Amino acid sequence: MDNTSGLFKDFAGLISSEDIKMAQPFLKTLHFEKDDLLLKKGEVCSFLYYIIDGIALYITLEGKKEQVVHVSFAGEFCLALYSFYARLPSEANIRALTKMQVIGLDYEKVQHLFDKSKNWERVGRLFAERAFIDALRTKHDIQHKTAHYRYQKLIEQRPEILQLLSLGQIASILGISQETLSRIRAKR
Amino acid sequence: MDNTSGLFKDFAGLISSEDIKMAQPFLKTLHFEKDDLLLKKGEVCSFLYYIIDGIALYITLEGKKEQVVHVSFAGEFCLALYSFYARLPSEANIRALTKMQVIGLDYEKVQHLFDKSKNWERVGRLFAERAFIDALRTKHDIQHKTAHYRYQKLIEQRPEILQLLSLGQIASILGISQETLSRIRAKR
DNA sequence: ATCCTTTTTTGACCTAGGTCAAAAAATCTG
DNA sequence: CAGATTTTTTGACCTAGGTCAAAAAAGGAT
């Protein structure tokens, strides 16, 4: 499972030039084309990407249907957190929605940075805390708010998503069917 | 919001006797009686409790109805994570379900430990990571599994809860109404 | 035991949102 | 532009689970 809403840009202040220097030799710049898979379902996620440019979708299969669980934008991290930490096969694909440029860092290197640098460890903590808070909020909304409300909230908070994803993809982010979203849209 | 499923006991190996020594002067042992409020809705959560003995409920009000969002047992942390980190008023009460004994540590001291000790920082990271993974899994089940399935899973994974909470409280953990839970129980 | 209070169950009914299939729009391709 | 393909909308119908209210059970007290 994934949810990489904690943004790296927010953590920039915590990282010294020394921390950057320490990480530098590990960083690899990578490119992906639209529809490339950054991670295949069943594989253990052994990298963490920081998105320089482009958009990634975290996609699961529920029955026959693809569900977009999360969208990651430039300035955000992109990884299958559960798989990454538990070292277990990912239940989702991560797929490029657009051409992408990312900085990749693999599992061992991340652990190395955590071991050697208190600041990186802290970034890791803050990232996880934010992701957690975000996941709880989403869970709460799904349980206690209507689909209509969630759609309005998405419009306000992540309007980019409306432009970029298909109806079905947006619906799955809201946790509803495509038809229901179409009906919500129909009425004003 | 809260979800303190990451257990401290799991982190014990990470903490040296020196870390313990560092924390010692900050720790306060506290006692609560059944139904005491450890945190009131509207207050900023400025402590973290580690539960030595007893059980705490994290409770929100949806309309008129109390919803149990999370249950914390002995060996687990207990705090309103969102309020604690964001320094914003909690949307929930935390209430003692039983007589409790806890070790309390307040916000500034926690930050102090994070600042001074890499190991404590790491415990904080792992705690948040686990809580996040857990929250995502719960969210997934609410979205894609039936109430019946979630009930079976609760029986398997947290049977204590069945013994300790009322029907309505269990129902709210499962994200369903009390009547629905009663009906699920009725059939086998 | 008996009365009182709380909790759980049952019944009748309702609704948000799902499913399936077809129509309509939009997009692509030569 | 015509035709083919994909995406979105609409319609008809269904279902899991909600709500409200009353009945039944289970727990206290005295």
Question: How does this structure look, described?
Answer:
Two copies of one chain form a homodimer. Chain A has 188 residues and is an alpha+beta fold. Chain A contains eight helices and eight strands; from the N terminus they run αββββββαββαααααα. The first copy, chain A, has helices spanning 17-23, 81-86, 107-116, 118-144, 147-157, 159-164, 167-174, 178-186, and strands spanning 28-32, 37-39, 47-53, 56-62, 65-72, 77-78, 92-96, 100-106. A four-stranded antiparallel sheet of chain A has the order 1-8-3-6. In chain A, helix 3 (107-116) packs across helix 4 (118-144) and helix 7 (167-174) packs across helix 8 (178-186). Chain A is globular. Chain B binds a DNA duplex (30 and 30 nucleotides) through residues 146-147, 166-168, 176-183, 185-186.
Q: How many β-strand runs of chain A?
A: 8
Oligomer class? homodimer
Euclidean distance between termini CA atoms of chain A: 34 Å
Largest β-sheet summary of chain A:
4 strands, antiparallel
Give the helix level of chain A as a range of percent: 40-55%
**Low-pLDDT ranges of chain A:** 1-7
Principal-axes shape call of chain A = globular
Q: Give the mean pLDDT of chain A.
A: 91
What is the chain-wise order of helices and strands of chain A? HEEEEEEHEEHHHHHH
Lateral arrangement of strands in the main beta sheet of chain A: 1-8-3-6
Strand percentage of chain A, roughly?
A: 15-25%
Radius of gyration of chain A: 17 Å
Features:
homodimer, 188 residues, alpha+beta, 4-stranded antiparallel sheet, 8 helices, globular, DNA-binding
